[in-house]
Amino acid sequence: MEGLQNYLSTRLPLQLNASQHFRLLAMVFALVFASTVVIHLLIQQDRTLPGMLIHATTIGIIYVVGIGLATTLLHILRDATEAVRVWHVWIASLAGFILGYYFLPIDDLLVWLFGANTDDHAGPLQFSQLLPVWFLLTYLFVNPYLNQGLRQELVRLTDVNELLQMRDLSEAQTDRDVISFESGRTQFTLGADTIRNVVVDDHYCYVHYSHGDAYAKRDLAMPLRDVQRLLPPVFAQVHRSHIINLEHVVAIRRKDRGLRVILSGEYEVPVSRHRLDQVLPLLRRNLHDHA
Question: Is the pTM above the cut of 0.85?
Answer without folding.
Answer: no
